Amino acid sequence: MKVGFIGLGIMGKPMAKNLLKAGYTLVVNTHKQSVVDEMVALGAQAASQQEIGAQCDVVLTMLPNSPQVEEVMLGANGVAAHMNPHAVFIDMSSINPIASQKIAAELAGRGIDMLDAPVSGGEPKAIDGTLSFMVGGKQEVFDRMKPLLSAMGSSVVRCGEIGAGNTTKLANQIIVACNIQALAEALTLSQKAGVDPKLVFEAIRGGLAGSTVMEAKAPMMLEGDDRPGFRIGLHIKDLDNALACGHTVGAPLPMTASVQEILHCLSASGLDACDHSAIAQYYELLSGIKLGR
Q1: Nearest-10 Cα torsion for 237, 238, 244, 248
Q2: DSSP codes joined into one string, 63-110
Q3: Lower CB count within 10 Å: N or C terminus of the chain?
Q4: pLDDT digit string (tens) for 13-63?
Q5: Catalytic residue among 13, 125, 169, 237
Q6: Per DSSP, which regions of the chain are E strands?
Q7: Is 237 labeled as catalytic in the residue annotation?
Q8: Torsion of CA 8, 10, 12, 17, to 10 degrees
C-alpha cells in the first residue's frame, strides 16, 4: 500500500513519522521544503499533490480547516482529479462535518471512498503514536483502513457514516473548552476566597470533578505557563465549526457560544498563539489576581 500524506505541520509530521516506523511506503507534500527534506531523509518520497493523487492507494490530509481541504482535494487541478477509482481519501483534519459530507459526495461521483478521521491528543500523542481517532464512513472502508490509522493512534473508533468523525471531534472540543473555562472559574473563586488554588486542585482531582483536562491544564494555569499544546486560535476554529454545525442542524450551544466569546477576547488581546489554558488569564484580568502566584 502506497500512502500519500499532505500537510506536515505540528501534528502531521510526527504522524507521518509513525507511518514510516510502521513500514508504510510514504509519499509526502507540505508547504515547508525543510520538513519535506527531513521526511525524505527518514525514508519518505517527495511528490507534488497531483503526483500523490496519481500514485497512491490512500491519500491522507492533515490541514487547518474546511477551505484548505476542499481546495487541496477539489480545487482546480486538485488531488481528486488525479486519483484512481477505488482509491481512498482519509481526511484527518478537524473541519465542519457538513463540509466532510460535501467532499465525500463529490468524491463518490469519481468512485473514491472517503473517511473523516479527526484526532484528539495533541502533539505529545501525535509523537508517541497514541492519538484517538474518531472516524466516519462506510464500515467496510473503515475495516480496511483501521490498521493504517492504528499506526498513528491507540484508539480508532468508527462513530457512524461520513461526517460522524468530525461531529464527534466537535463534541470533544466543546467538552474540553467548557471544562477549561469551568476550571479557571473555580480556581479563581478559590483564590479570591482566600483558599490556595493549588490545594484545591490537589483536593478535588481524585473526585468526580477530576478529569484529563484538569490534570493537563490546572498546573499550567497555576504556573502561568501558556506555551501552546493546543493554541487558542485553533480552538476558536473548532468552536466556529461547532456553532456553524449547530445552527445547521438546530442544536442549541449556549455554553459553546459563551466560551467562544472568551477565546475571541483573548485572541484580540494578542494571545491567539497561546495555549487554550490561557482562558485563566481572562479571569485574572477580571479579578485582579494571578492564579497561584
Answers
A1: 150
A2: -SSHHHHHHHHHSTT-GGGGPPTT-EEEE-S---HHHHHHHHHHHHTT
A3: C
A4: 999 999 999 999 999 999 999 999 999 999 999 999 999 999 999 999 999
A5: 169
A6: 2-6, 25-29, 45-46, 58-61, 88-91, 113-116, 119-120, 131-136, 153-160
A7: no
A8: 90
